[in-house]
Amino acid sequence: MKTSDEIRKFEKQYFDEIVGIFNNPKSKFKKHLLDLEIITRKNYNHYNNLWGKKNKIEIAVERMLRFHLYRNTKLEIVDVYTSPLSTDIAIELKDIILCIDAKTVDLYGNLGDESSLAIQKNQITFDNQPESGRPSHSNDYFWPGLAFPPQLEKYFIDSNGKEKPCLTYFINFYYEDDGSSFKLSHMNFCSVPHYEIAKEPPFNNELAQNFKTWSYIENDTYGKEYLPINENDDDFEEKKKNWNPIWGSEDGDPAIRSYIDSGLKHPMRKNDYCLWKSPKKDSGEWKVALWGGSARIYKDRLLNRLDYEGMPWEGVKEFKIGVGHTPNYEITEKYWGQGKSNNYMGDQEKTELRQKEIDNMAELQGDTS
C-alpha cells in the first residue's frame, strides 16, 4: 500500500500534467472548443429541433477530451483500465490509474451546481462519513445516516504486481443556453482526494455532501422483508409495529417523513437499523433506504492542498473559454439559475457577480491557427 505522501506526490503531479495538456500554447484543444462554439451557435435551431434537449455539447466535449488525452505522449499510457466500475475515462499509466470524469453544465438551469461537483460512487475511493443521521422522535433509536460506499477500487495491481492508486480528476465545462442562443463560458479542473488522503485532516472523510438522490431497495435481493410496502397492503400495520417516527417538515409544518425500523437491520451494515422512507409524496409506498445515489463535493473543499513536502497547491483551476460573446441576459434580462422560485427569470445578482469573477479568470491557452 502506498503512503499518503506518495499519493500526495502523484495527485499534484498528474493534476499539473492534465491541466498542462489542455492549457498549453501549442495545444489545439482551445481551437477545437472555439470550433464547437461556432458550429453550435450556427446550427442552434437545427440542434434544438433535432434533439429537443439543452445539453448539445456533451458528446463532442468528451470526444475532444479523449482525443487530446490519448495522443499525449507525456502521460506514458500503458493500457486501458478495463474495470466497468470507473469514471468516463480511465487509463493505466506507469504509476497510477488515471480516472477522469467530464461534465458539461448549463448555467441557466444549473447555476447552483457550479460551486460543486456532482459525483457517483464509481468515481471515488474514499469512505465518506454517513450523512443525515438522526434519532427517532422518542430518542430511543438512532439512524446513523445514509452511506455513500465507494465503488472505484483504491489500488490496481498490474501484470507485474505493481500497486497503482486510482486517482480521480474532474474537468467541467460551463456554458450558457437560454433556449435561443449558446455561448461557452469557462471550464475548471478539480482533483478529488484519494482514500489515503481523504481520511486525513482536513478532509476526515467528510467530502461528499447533500445527496442529490437516494437509492432504495426495490426487489427481494436482500430478502422479502426489505421489499417496498404500500399503506393499502393488508400486512402494512403489522409491518409498521417496529417503526419509530422521525419528524421533519413539509411546507413549513411538522410531518413524519421517515421511520427507523427497530426490528430490521440494514442488509449492508449489520449493526445499523433500516430507515423506511416514502420517496414520492402522497404515494403511500414506503421503501428501505439503501445508500446515497449521487452526491456533491463543494469545490472550495478541494482548493487548498498540501503536497508530499507540505507545500501548498491548489486542487481547483479555472479558465475562460469561448470567443467571449456578449451574454444574452444583457438583452433578454433572463438570468442564470432559472426556476420556479424566480418565475424562470433567473438570479440577476448572482449572475452578474459570478460573471465578474469569470471575466477575471485567465484565458485558456492554445494554438487557434
CATH homologous superfamily of the largest domain?
A: Restriction endonuclease BglI
CATH level 1 class label of the largest domain: Alpha Beta
Radius of gyration, CA atoms, in whole angstroms: 23 Å
- The percent range for helix content is 10-25%
CATH architecture of the largest domain: 3-Layer(aba) Sandwich
Helical stretch count? 9
Number of strands: 18
CATH T-level fold name of the largest domain: ECO RV Endonuclease, Chain A
> What structural category arises from helix and sheet content?
alpha+beta
What is the mean predicted local confidence, pLDDT? Answer: 94
Order of helices and strands: HHHHEEEEEEEEEHEEHEEEEHEEEHH
Poorly predicted regions? none
Summed up:
22% of the residues lie in helices and 32% in strands.
Please describe what this structure looks like:
Strands 1, 2, 3, 7, 8, 9 and 18 form a 7-stranded mixed sheet that branches. Strands 4, 10, 11, 12, 13, 14 and 15 form a 7-stranded antiparallel sheet that branches. Strands 5-6 form a two-stranded antiparallel sheet. By secondary structure, the protein is an alpha+beta fold. It has helices at 4-22, 29-42, 44-51, 58-70, 195-198, 236-239, 300-303, 329-332, 348-359; strands spanning 77-80, 89-93, 97-106, 116-119, 134-135, 142-143, 155-157, 163-177, 182-192, 209-216, 229-230, 243-250, 253-265, 273-277, 285-298, 304-306, 312-314, 316-320. α2 runs antiparallel to α4 (58-70). The protein has 2 domains: 4-130 and 148-214 and 293-359, ECO RV Endonuclease, Chain A (3-Layer(aba) Sandwich), CATH 3.40.600.20; 216-292, no CATH class. The protein contains 9 helices and 18 strands. The relative contact order is 0.17. A hairpin with a 3-residue loop joins β2 and β3 (97-106).
